[in-house]
Design brief:
- There is one protein chain.
- This protein is an alpha/beta fold.
- The protein folds into three domains: 101 residues, Rossmann fold (3-Layer(aba) Sandwich); 48 residues, no CATH class; 70 residues.
- 60% of the residues lie in helices and 10% in strands.
- It is built from nine helices and four strands.
- The protein has a four-stranded parallel β-sheet with strand order 2-1-3-4, with helices on both faces.
- The longest helix has 37 residues.
- The protein is flat and about 75 Å long.
């Protein structure tokens, strides 16, 4: 297990004196040891909990995302006192753990999931009710002895979609979108690797693996996957 540590103190005085910081470092260190995990990055923010400008948080999230690591925070109140951080985590897709409340991750994301699920269920109920009304109305308007009932929806269901190849196209599009996003995330990393002298595909693959970056599917880099990455970076830059 790989860990990216994020710590925050509220004032410059706390940052200089280490007040609060040492306790956070200790908590994260103990958690890493208990899980047999490696800390591959540490980010420290000196900022009020009300502030939404968190450059170190953004850097920590990016590091965790491109390496497939877990973001670990010592205490839940070190994150934020507003909902903005929750939204940032939700959009980042990064797994995170709070040492003082390990269930906070599941709880936070769970609340959002429950709200989304409730809305989806409400839409589903409204749709079913509307279909029932429509079917009844169509049946009632049919001619006597020759009732014409219009079938709503695709009579072949998912089979027709599979024959049309739509499901496959959607899956391919999603894979491509994930690869494009990973190319954007790794653009600065690739530039830094090139500046360090690694210019061949094999050398760049080795450097990406050494930095514990992962491919869009969570695997290791090879010359062929680096070549595809460079094409996507080039396409995004044009």
């Amino acid at each position: 297990m790989k860990i990216v540590a994020y710590m925050r103190v509220s004032t410059q005085k706390q940052g200089k004196s280490g007040l609060g910081m040492e306790a956070q470092e200790s908590a994260i260190g103990h958690y890493a040891a208990s899980q047999g995990a490696r800390i591959i990055g540490e980010y420290t923010e000196i900022e009020s909990g009300k502030s939404t400008d968190r450059p170190q948080l953004a850097a920590a999230l990016h590091h965790a995302k491109v390496t497939g690591a877990t973001l670990v925070i010592a205490k839940l109140d070190r994150l934020s006192r507003s909902a903005s951080f929750t939204l940032t985590l939700r959009d980042s897709g990064v797994r995170f753990i709070c040492c003082d409340m390990p269930e906070a991750n599941d709880l936070t994301i769970g609340v959002l999931a429950v709200v989304a699920q409730a809305e989806a269920q409400a839409i589903s109920r409204r749709t079913k009710d509307a279909l029932k009304v429509a079917r009844k109305r169509i049946a009632e308007t049919g001619q006597r002895g020759h009732r014409r009932v219009k079938r709503l929806g695709n009579p072949n269901g998912a089979d027709a979609l599979r024959r049309a190849g739509r499901g496959n196209r959607a899956a391919i599009a999603k894979v491509s979108l994930n690869a494009d996003q990973r190319a954007k995330d790794l653009k600065s990393v690739v530039a830094d690797i090139r500046e360090s002298g690694a210019v061949t595909l094999k050398a760049m693959a080795r450097a990406l693996n050494d930095r514990e970056m992962v491919t869009p599917r969570g695997g290791r880099w090879h010359a062929s996957s680096v070549a595809n990455l460079l094409k996507r970076i080039g396409a995004a830059s044009t």
